[in-house]
Specification:
Shape: globular
Number of domains: 2
CATH architecture of the largest domain: 3-Layer(aba) Sandwich
Strand content: 25-35%
Helix content: 25-40%
CATH topology of the largest domain: Rossmann fold
Low-confidence stretches: none
Distance between the termini: 46 Å
Strand order of the largest sheet: 9-8-7-10-11-15-12
CATH class of the largest domain: Alpha Beta
Structural class: alpha/beta
Radius of gyration: 20 Å
Length: 241
Amino acid sequence: MIGPGKRVLLVGEGRTFFVRSGTGMFSTDRGVIDLDAVGMASAGDTIESHTGHLFRVLIPRAPDYFEHAKRTGAPMLPRDIGLVIALTGMNRNDVVLDAGTGSGISAIFFGGVAKKVVTYETREDFARVAAENIREAGLANVEVIPGDVLAAEDLFDIVHYDMTIGPEHVRHAHSLLRPGGYLACYTPFIEHLCIVLETAEGLFSSVRAVECIEREMTRSKRGTRPSTRVGHSGYLTIARK
């Protein structure tokens, strides 16, 4: 049984609703759904609206929070978050420092992989939204700290920045990392990428920068080809101590 107060997805007939179980009635263009009944269901069960339309109950995963959670700005795309995880080898033994929390989407992805995540956000209103999203994702191993990441202490296996970065941030990350640990910096502009590279190359044993690009494939009666949508999102620098 899912129980009351849990975030769930209701999926059916081309519709997806991100709702909280056990909070009364939910009106849709496919009829009214009893959310108390959703709380009594289990993942995979089918719920019927008052007009007879069927919805499957699913437990949200990290990509669903990217799509449906409350936002305070534009979060990193899942593909770019995945690249951070892959290039740093993030795993269940890692303690991760994240900065530029925003809506908490990256922290939610990291929290599903790492042992512990500590994420810093300078704006208190953003930090409150992120903390709410992380609670709803059920991640007790993610801590949101309203404040400047330059105040962070302790040692970490991975430091991740998604924020405006200065040389002081790169140097601070180096001081916080365990030997063999990784710094990952997502930067939207080449100028910020250059700041990271120029500082990291004098500190870290290896530095690698990549452009984040994805080409979606589209299919029609005429054939299959790459989408004409812009595939670029930003730049990622990975540096190892």
